[in-house]
Amino acid sequence: MRIIAAAVAALLLLPVLGGSRAPAQPATWQEDMLYDPGPLAPIDSRLKVRVGEPAPDFTLPALHGEPVTLSRYRGQKNVVLSFVPAAWTPVCSDQWPGYNLARALFEARDAIVLGITVDNLPTLHAWTRQMGQLWFPVLSDFWPHGAVAERYGVLRSDGVSERAIFIVDQRGLIRYIEVSDINRRPDLESCIGELEKLAP
Amino acid sequence: MKRAPCLILAILLAAAPALGAAGGGLAPQPGDILPVIELEAPGDADQLRYLGLQAAEPFRIGDIQSEVVILQVFSMYCPHCQREAPDVNRLFETIEADRRYRGRVKLIGIGAGNSGFEVGVFRQSFTIPFPLFADESLTIHRQLGEVRTPYFFGVRIAEDGAARVFYSRPGGLDGAAPHKFLKILLENAGLQW
Predict the structure, then answer these.
(1) Complex ipTM value
(2) Which of A34, A69, A79, B115 has the fewest CB atoms within 10 Å, measured from its CB?
(3) Is residue B20 included in any domain, yes or no?
(4) In a domain, B11, yes or no
(5) Does A183 contact chain B (CB < 8 Å)?
């Protein structure tokens, strides 16, 4: 009986010992709403396009306004296709807010970002509301599921896309491809540097 | 009786996840000595002067000429940090405008996971007047317990350069007026103002 009492006392003490150093987190903290899948295989797909090739055209529903067709930017804008794996996951949830802050850097290089995930529009609506007002179109590659990601060769075997960037110039040619480790954010400086190379 | 130790072990094992959740990746807490954090000196002469550094060489938090250092962990990619940036600027202005604090309290930011380029984007976007440092490799972030962003530490610097934490909390000003936030933060520093 005394042994059981000691064990129960030890059990009661554990949260006290551990909790004494654990900072309390506000319940409204955004990260509490995220699903962390843990470390994933860095890359799980095979590219189907190459630098120098015409970018496969597509039309996808956009979160705001009419569906967006890639080729509509031909002759007008360089396009940064930013595939991110999934809404409500840790790295994805801060990548686009960063692009939000870097808007002037993209626009100074005649570039528009098209953010793409395989999530449906209602999910993208709820998720991107946490990010502030994004200045670029957010597109849903939900149905047929991941068809655009698959066409570019960045659809992973579990149905989400890679974390990938394709830069398409004003002629519609792919000029840069970066398929990042899905667990890490791609370097902003290299993306801006590649856009810089497109300057006439 | 032989089963009793097994019973205790089973109970403790069952409780282990709770301990791990509370104890993993802990940020330095009030009373702790801040881990030795090495920073590259800012290239800007005004910021070198602000920090009281004699030369543009790597330095430690304890080398900053101040009684208190407020250290904000931020990320350019963190929407909360972006929203709070103007308020943190006002916090800096509040410190500099008050003769009780000016020179005795210094404010710096550590960009967790941010490259120098990304920290530069953040600085330029919000015209941040106090020193910001890149932590692209997350080395400092790990030293600080992999805290969420934004996160504020208040650190008191002893004459021998030892840096002791007196404030350690996630979140930012959370809508508080900068002077109120500063008062709350500094009231545990153990200094007369």
Answers:
(1) 0.73
(2) A69
(3) no
(4) no
(5) no
> Residues A100, A82: contact at Cβ < 8 Å?
no
Active site residue A92: yes
Chain A CB contacts of B174 below 8 Å: 26
Residue B121 falls inside a structural domain = yes
How are beta strands B151-157 and B68-74 bridged, if at all?
antiparallel
**A-B interface: how many C-beta pairs under 8 angstroms?**
94
Q: Which chain B residues contact residue A8 at CB under 8 A?
A: 11
Asked if B143 and B35 touch (Cβ cutoff 8 Å), the reply is yes
In single-letter form, the type of residue at position A23 comes to: P
Q: How far is A176 from chain B (nearest CA, A)?
A: 20
Q: Quick check: A147 contacting B, CB < 8 Å?
A: no
User: What are B59-110's pLDDT values in tens digits?
Assistant: 999 999 999 999 999 999 988 899 999 999 999 999 999 999 999 999 999 9
HSE, side-chain direction, 13 A CA sphere, residue B55: 2
Single pTM value for the model:
0.79
List the CATH number of the domain containing B36: 3.40.30.10
CB of B176 less than 8 A from some CB of A: no
Check the CA dihedral A174-A176-A182-A184 and report its sign.
negative
CB atoms within 10 A of CB B134: 21
Cα A65 to chain center, whole Å?
21
Total tally of structural domains belonging to chain B: 1
With CB atoms and an 8 Å threshold, state whether B21 touches A18: yes
User: Range of B67's domain?
Assistant: 25-189
| From A68, A80, A92, A164, the catalytic residue | A92
HSE on the CB side for B108, CA within 13 Å? 28
Tokens of B111: 């960009």
Q: Which of residues 34-73 of B touch A (CB under 8 A)?
A: none
H or E element: which one contains B112?
strand B105-112
Confirm whether B75 is domain-assigned. Answer: yes
